[in-house]
Amino acid sequence: MIGEFVIGRVIKAMNSNWHPQCFRCEECNGELADAGFIKCQGRALCHTCNANVKAGVLGKHICHQCHGVIDDKPLRFRGELYHPYHFNCTTCGIELNSEAREVRSRPGYAANEMNELYCLRCHDKMGIPICGACRRPIEERVVTALGKHWHVEHFVCAKCEKPFLGHRHYEKKGLAYCEIHYHQLFGNLCFVCNQVISGDVFTALNKAWCVHHFACAFCDQKMNQKTKFFEFDLKPACKKCYDKFPQELKKRMRRMYDLNPKRIPSA
C-alpha cells in the first residue's frame, strides 16, 4: 500500500520508492515494475499508453502489433489498425502497403475469422469486386449501380443516406436518390400532400400539384387547367374569391402583374 515501508524488492522511480505491485501506469493501471515505463508530462505511463497519448496529440493511429505511431495510412486487418509493413501478401509474399485487401479465405466462417491479406495486384486477379463506398472487398451480395459495385448496406440515398435495400433508386449526376428525395430535388412532389405525383402534373406559381389537389387557397374549390385563377401571396385564388377582394387590393395586384407579366396566371 502507498505510504507503507517497502520490505524486499524496491522500485525507485519518479523520485519515490515503490512496492513493485504499487508502481502502476497512471492511464491503464497496469504494473510497470517489469514492463518498464516512460515519464510523460509528470506521469508514469506504460509504453502502450504513452504511444496512445502521443498519437492523440498528433491526431494519428497506433499500430495494434508494435504499439508505435502510424505516420502514414494504416492497414486495417480483422478490425484493428497496423503498420502495413508488418504483413506480406498471402499469394506473392510481397511486403504490403495500405492498399492491401482483406479477404475471407473460407466461406461460412464468421467475420474476421480465417481472413487473409493480399496485395492489390494479386487481389485484382481474384476478380473480387470492391465496394464504391468503403473500398473493401464484397464477398456476399453485390449491388451494381452508377458504374460501381457496392455492399448492399453501403448503397444509400445521397440525400437521406438510407440504404435502398433492393428498392428502386433514381440517378442524377453520378449520385443515387430514393424516390421521395429525387422528386423533391429534381422532380415533382405535390405542394399539398408532399407525395410523388405519379399521374398528371398541374404546374402553377412555380409549384407542382396533384391534379385533384389544386384548389383555391381561400374557399378550397377544386380547379383545373381551364379554371381562371389569380395569384395572391404566392397562392392561387379562384375568380369568385378574387372578385371579393377590396378594390384597392385588386389594383395593387394588377400593378404588380403589369410590372411583371410573367407572374400573370393563365387559365
Automatic annotation (TrEMBL):
Q: Which organism is it from?
A: Atta cephalotes
Return one GO MF term: metal ion binding
Keyword Zinc recorded: yes
Gene3D superfamilies this protein is in?
Cysteine Rich Protein
Question: PROSITE patterns from the xrefs?
Answer: LIM_DOMAIN_1, LIM_DOMAIN_2
Domain LIM zinc-binding: from-to ranges = 1-56, 129-188
Q: Read off the SMART domains from this record.
A: LIM
Q: Name one GO biological process term.
A: positive regulation of substrate adhesion-dependent cell spreading
Q: Which UniProt keywords apply?
A: Cell junction, LIM domain, Metal-binding, Repeat, Zinc
GO cellular component, alphabetical, reads: cell-cell junction; cytoplasm; focal adhesion
* Biological classification of the source: Eukaryota, Metazoa, Ecdysozoa, Arthropoda, Hexapoda
* Database matches in InterPro entries: PINCH-1-4-like, Znf_LIM
Q: Kindly list the places in or outside the cell where this protein is found, as annotated in its UniProt entry.
A: Cell junction
Protein name (Swiss-Prot/TrEMBL):
LIM zinc-binding domain-containing protein
